C-alpha cells in the first residue's frame, strides 16, 4: 500500500481565498477529467466534476460542474457549499474539518453532531463520475440535500444562463438530461434519497430562480484577464433523510455512457487499486511513487484514423483496439487544464512518465502512432482540441526529439524484439526525417553547408520558445538554434548506431556527425562568457550573427546521450546556467542580467506572453540541468546530494497549487507560485526521469 497521501486541516484554508489556491485532479485515461479545489469551490472555468471527451482525447465538454450539499437539523439549514459570487461568498468551508487526497479527493464535514465523508472518483476508461457519501447522524432527525450542478459547455469556457437548455426526464432514481445543442444524454443516478424539483421552492428578491446557479465568480480567471463569471443548471435536489444515530453509505453517479453504471464504492476502489499498482511498479521510494501517480494523469488514449494507404500497419499494430481503419493508442497530454498532445512535449515527457515506471507497452504505442504522423520529415507540433481539425507541423525540434525517445526506449529495454520493433515500425520514419532535414523541408528547415541545421524566418516560431502575439515574434530564434543542433548531432549518432545494428549504411551518419561536431564547437562557443551562444542568425548575405543572451537551451548540449563539447566546456556551461538561470522550481528562460528580462508572469494575456520565455522559470528544464550537473561532476557524492536537494524542492511544490502535480512555469524572481498549467507532463516527466536516473541509483 502506498504511503503517499496529502492531508490539509482547517488551518490551511482559513479563508475562501486560501482554499482556492489548492486544487486536485482526477483523469480517466480517455481525455476526461475531474478537477476542483480543496474547499469544494470552483476557481476557474476549467473546474468540474465531470469533463467528458467525446472523441478521445478531444472534443471535451463539462457536463457536471459541481455537487453541493446542505444539512437540515431541527428545521435549520446549514449550507456546506463554498463559492465566490459577485458581491458575496458562500462559506461552507467553515464546516470542513479536513481535506484528504489519497489518490481520490475526500472531504470531511461536520455540522453539530452530524459527520459527512464525501469522496469523488472517476471510472477509468469511461466518461463517468461517482460521488460516494458516508454519513453518521447525531441525536436529532436530519436530512442531507445534494444539489448537482449540470452543464454542457465546451471545456474551459463560461456560459450564460440562457444557454442552459435541456430536455429532461426524471423517473425513479434516474434523471436524464439531453442538451439542446449537443448529441449526448447525461444520466444522473442516486442510490439513496428522493428527488425534489427545485422549481417548487419559494423564490425571493435574493433568489429569484432556483433552477440556475447564477453568477459564480472564478478568481483565477479574473486574475488573468478573463471574465470569469459562470452559470449552472440545478433542476433537482436529492434529499436523504437521516434518523437519529443512523449511519448511511450511498452514492450518486453522472455519466454520458450508454451502459449502466456499477456500484459507486466499487468504482472508487478500482480506481485506487489501479493507481496503487502503477505506483508499486516504481519501487518503495515515496517521492518516486508520488511522481508515478502524477505521471499517470497525462497518459491517455487517442483515437487515430489511419489513411487508406497505411491501413496495412494496423494488422500488426500495438494498439489497444483496432476498429476498421481506426486505432486506439496511447498519447501524452501536454498539461492540465488546457493543453492537448504536442509532439515536442510528448517526446520529452514520456522518458520520465513511462520508462522508469516500466510502462513499455504505452511507450511502443506512442512511438508507433507518432511515426504514422511523420510528414515531409516533420513530426506534428500540436494536435488540436477538435477532432475535425488537422495536426499542425510548425516545429523544428519535435522530429529530432523523436530520435532521443527511441534511444531511451532501447536503453531501458534493449531486447532483440525491441530492436525488431524499432527496425520494422520506426526506422523508416527516422530515415525520412534525416533525409528531409538534410535536403530541406517546410519553414526553411534544412542542413546548411556547414552541417548545422537552420530554419525559420518572418513570423515562424519553430522552437519551444514559440510565442507569437499578432505580428510580434517575442523570441525570434531563426537560424541555427543551439538545442536544435545538439539534437541533430544526437540524432545522427543514434542513426549511426541503429544502421550498424540493422546492417544499413552507417558511414553516412558518422561523416555528418563529425562535420556537425567540428562546426558546432567552432561556431557556438562563446569564449567571453564561457558558455554557448543561444542562436546564430544567418542573414541573406551569408553573414552569421550569434545571439549571446544567456538562455537555458544550451544545457541540452551537455545532457543528451551524445554530445560534442569537451568536458571543461560542458562544466562551464553547467556553471553558467547554474549561476544565472537556476531556481528551486525551474530554470529561467533568460538571465536576470539581461535588459529584457521579465521577473514575473502575471497580468493580462499579452503581458504573460511577453514574459513566457523572457525570464519565466520552467520546471521541465530542471531535468536536463540535473542530468548535466551530475554528468560533469561525474555523479560524485557531493553532486548527487546537491541533485537530491534539487528534486526535493519539487516534492515541496507538490503540496501547493495542484496537489501532487508540478506546474508548467513559475516566476523568474522568487519562483514559488504556480503559473500556467497547474500540472505539466514534461515538468513531471523530467523531474521523474532525472530523479530515477541521476539521483536514486547513486544514493547508496
Count of alpha/pi helices: 16
CATH topology of the largest domain: Glycosyltransferase
Helix vs. strand class: alpha+beta
Give the overall pLDDT as a whole number: 94
> What is the rounded distance between the termini?
24 Å
Q: How many separate structural domains?
A: 2
Tell me the name of the CATH class of the largest domain. Mainly Alpha
Strand content: 25-35%
Low-confidence stretches at least 5 residues in length (pLDDT < 50)?
none
Report the helical percentage: 25-40%
Strand order of the largest sheet: 1-9-10-11-12-21-16-15-14
> What coarse outline follows from CA principal-axis ratios?
elongated
Structure summary, number of beta strands:
40
CATH-derived architecture of the largest domain:
Alpha/alpha barrel
**What's the alpha carbon Rg, rounded to whole Å?**
27 Å
Largest sheet: 9 strands, antiparallel
Topology (SSEs and partners):
Blueprint: E1 6-9, H1 16-20, E2 23-27, E3 33-37, E4 48-55, E5 58-73, E6 76-79, E7 82-85, E8 88-91, E9 96-102, E10 104-111, E11 114-122, E12 128-136, E13 142-154, E14 166-171, E15 174-179, E16 186-190, E17 194-197, E18 212-217, H2 219-223, E19 229-233, E20 236-242, E21 247-255, H3 264-280, H4 286-296, E22 299-305, E23 321-323, E24 326-332, E25 335-336, H5 343-353, H6 360-372, H7 398-412, H8 416-439, E26 446-447, E27 453-454, E28 468-469, E29 472-473, E30 480-481, H9 482-501, H10 507-524, E31 525-526, E32 531-532, E33 535-538, E34 544-547, H11 556-559, H12 567-581, E35 582-583, E36 586-588, H13 605-611, E37 617-618, H14 621-632, H15 637-653, E38 665-666, E39 674-675, E40 679-680, H16 681-695
Antiparallel strand pairs: 1-9, 2-3, 3-4, 4-5, 5-6, 5-13, 7-8, 9-10, 10-11, 11-12, 12-21, 13-20, 14-15, 15-16, 16-21, 17-20, 18-19, 22-24, 23-24, 25-40, 26-27, 28-29, 30-33, 31-32, 33-34, 35-36, 36-37, 37-38, 38-39
Amino acid at each position: 500500500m502506498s504511503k503517499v497521501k496529502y492531508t490539509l486541516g482547517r488551518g490551511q484554508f482559513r479563508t475562501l481565498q486560501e482554499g482556492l489556491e489548492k486544487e486536485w485532479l482526477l483523469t480517466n485515461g480517455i481525455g476526461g477529467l475531474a478537477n476542483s479545489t480543496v474547499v469544494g469551490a470552483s476557481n476557474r472555468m476549467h473546474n468540474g466534476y465531470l469533463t467528458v471527451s467525446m472523441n478521445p482525447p478531444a472534443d471535451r465538454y463539462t457536463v457536471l460542474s459541481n455537487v453541493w450539499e446542505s444539512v437540515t437539523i431541527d428545521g435549520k439549514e446549514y449550507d456546506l457549499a463554498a463559492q465566490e459570487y459577485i458581491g458575496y461568498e458562500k462559506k461552507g468551508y467553515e464546516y470542513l474539518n479536513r481535506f484528504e487526497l489519497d489518490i481520490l479527493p475526500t472531504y470531511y464535514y461536520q455540522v453539530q453532531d452530524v459527520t459527512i465523508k464525501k469522496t469523488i472518483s472517476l471510472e477509468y476508461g469511461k466518461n463517468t463520475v461517482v460521488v460516494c457519501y458516508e454519513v453518521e447522524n447525531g441525536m436529532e432527525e436530519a436530512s442531507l440535500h445534494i444539489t448537482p450542478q449540470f452543464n454542457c459547455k465546451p471545456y474551459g469556457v463560461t456560459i450564460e444562463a440562457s444557454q442552459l437548455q435541456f430536455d429532461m426526464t426524471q423517473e425513479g432514481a434516474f434523471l436524464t438530461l439531453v442538451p439542446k445543442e449537443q448529441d449526448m444524454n447525461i444520466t444522473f443516478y442516486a442510490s439513496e434519497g428522493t428527488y425534489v424539483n427545485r422549481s417548487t421552492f419559494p423564490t425571493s428578491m435574493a433568489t429569484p430562480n432556483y433552477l440556475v446557479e447564477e453568477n459564480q465568480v472564478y478568481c483565477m480567471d479574473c486574475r488573468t484577464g478573463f471574465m470569469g463569471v459562470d452559470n449552472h443548471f440545478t433542476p433537482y435536489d436529492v434529499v436523504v433523510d437521516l434518523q437519529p444515530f443512523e449511519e448511511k453509505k450511498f452514492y450518486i453517479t453522472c455519466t454520458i455512457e450508454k451502459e449502466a453504471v456499477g456500484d459507486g464504492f466499487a468504482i472508487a476502489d478500482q480506481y485506487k487499486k489501479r493507481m496503487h499498482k502503477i505506483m508499486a511498479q516504481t519501487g518503495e521510494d515515496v517521492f518516486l511513487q508520488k511522481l508515478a501517480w502524477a505521471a499517470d494523469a497525462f497518459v491517455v488514449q487517442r483515437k487515430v484514423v489511419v489513411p487508406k494507404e497505411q491501413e496495412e500497419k494496423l494488422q500488426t499494430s500495438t494498439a489497444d483496439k483496432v476498429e476498421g481503419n481506426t486505432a486506439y493508442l496511447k498519447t501524452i497530454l501536454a498539461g492540465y487544464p488546457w493543453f492537448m498532445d504536442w509532439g515536442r512535449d510528448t517526446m520529452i515527457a514520456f522518458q520520465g512518465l513511462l520508462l522508469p515506471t516500466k510502462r513499455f507497452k504505452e511507450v511502443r504505442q506512442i512511438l508507433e502512432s507518432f511515426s504514422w504522423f511523420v510528414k515531409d520529415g516533420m513530426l506534428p507540433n500540436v494536435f488540436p482540441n477538435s477532432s475535425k481539425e488537422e495536426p499542425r507541423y510548425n516545429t523544428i525540434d519535435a522530429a529530432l526529439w523523436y530520435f532521443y525517445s527511441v534511444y531511451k526506449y532501447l536503453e531501458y529495454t534493449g531486447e532483440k524484439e525491441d530492436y525488431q520493433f524499432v527496425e520494422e515500425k520506426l526506422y523508416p520514419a527516422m530515415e525520412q526525417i534525416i533525409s528531409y532535414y538534410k535536403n530541406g523541408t517546410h519553414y526553411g528547415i534544412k542542413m546548411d553547408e556547414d552541417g548545422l541545421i537552420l530554419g525559420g524566418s518572418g513570423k515562424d516560431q519553430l522552437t519551444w520558445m514559440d510565442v507569437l502575439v499578432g505580428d510580434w515574434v517575442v523570441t525570434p530564434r531563426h537560424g541555427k538554434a543551439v538545442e536544435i543542433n545538439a539534437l541533430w548531432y544526437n540524432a545522427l549518432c543514434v542513426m549511426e548506431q541503429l544502421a550498424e545494428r540493422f546492417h544499413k549504411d552507417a558511414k553516412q551518419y558518422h561523416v555528418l556527425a563529425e562535420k556537425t561536431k567540428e562546426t558546432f564547437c567552432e561556431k557556438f562557443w562563446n569564449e567571453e562568457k564561457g558558455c554557448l551562444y543561444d542562436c546564430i542568425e544567418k542573414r541573406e548575405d551569408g553573414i552569421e550573427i550569434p545571439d549571446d543572451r544567456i538562455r537555458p537551451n544550451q544545457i541540452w548540449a551537455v545532457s543528451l546521450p551524445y554530445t560534442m563539447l569537451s568536458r571543461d566546456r560542458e562544466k562551464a556551461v553547467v556553471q553558467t546556467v547554474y549561476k544565472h538561470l537556476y531556481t528551486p522550481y525551474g530554470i529561467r528562460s533568460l538571465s536576470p542580467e539581461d535588459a529584457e528580462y521579465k521577473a514575473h508572469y502575471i497580468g493580462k494575456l499579452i503581458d504573460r506572453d511577453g514574459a513566457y520565455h523572457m525570464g519565466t522559470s520552467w520546471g521541465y528544464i530542471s531535468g536536463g540541468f540535473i542530468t548535466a550537473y551530475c554528468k560533469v561532476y561525474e555523479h560524485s557524492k557531493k553532486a548527487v546530494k546537491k541533485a537530491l536537494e534539487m528534486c526535493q524542492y519539487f516534492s515541496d511544490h507538490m503540496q501547493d497549487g495542484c496537489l501532487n502535480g508540478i506546474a508548467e512555469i513559475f516566476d523568474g524572481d522568487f519562483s514559488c507560485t504556480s503559473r500556467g498549467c497547474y500540472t505539466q507532463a514534461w515538468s513531471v516527466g523530467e523531474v521523474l526521469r532525472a530523479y530515477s536516473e541521476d539521483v536514486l541509483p547513486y544514493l547508496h
